[in-house]
Amino acid sequence: MEDKLQFRPLEKDDLEFIYKMRINPNVMDYWFEEPYTTREKLKKSFEEEQDNNSHREFILYNLKETVGYTCLYDIDHRHRNAEFAIMIDPSQQGKGYATEATRLIVEYGFNQLNLKKLYLYVIKNNEKAFHIYRKLGFQTEGELKKHFFVDGKYHDALMMGLLREDYVA
């Protein structure tokens, strides 16, 4: 990793970066959404989410530039769990940012939001992501057959979870 990774809440000025990521099919295939949005739709979504207590969005950055985006969503304050998702700019991949970003957001979820559990979905053959999640303590909790359509075919997905007491910083 070239510089120390940090995160901060998503701001309106970050929407152009998010837009570029969200129209990139190679990024969105693993975000499990279509690579289609408009700047107007993105801005509207951002404005609607400002008061959403079940959603936290963050920009990942180092001293030089923005490197990615991550979020906790479907935050359930009663049951104290949330879904984790991350996207790293393709030009920044392979530099260790995904591991560090995941660690930072896991710690935020457990220490700041007092969550009991974080969970995520990953395509079964996405070995790089699977390795990162396992390294940080996520355990496979289930398998979803032919759940995501990527690169012209259906893929199995894994649901992975991490309990606070199983996390080792």
From TrEMBL:
Please name the InterPro entries in this protein's record. Acyl_CoA_acyltransferase (IPR016181), GNAT_dom (IPR000182)
Q: Where is the signal peptide?
A: none
**Database matches in Gene3D superfamilies:** 3.40.630.30
* Cross-referenced Pfam families: Acetyltransf_3
Any GO molecular function? diamine N-acetyltransferase activity
Uppermost EC category: transferase
Q: Mind telling me which PANTHER family this protein's record contains?
A: SPERMIDINE N(1)-ACETYLTRANSFERASE
User: What protein does this entry describe?
Assistant: Diamine N-acetyltransferase
Q: Which organism is it from?
A: Texcoconibacillus texcoconensis
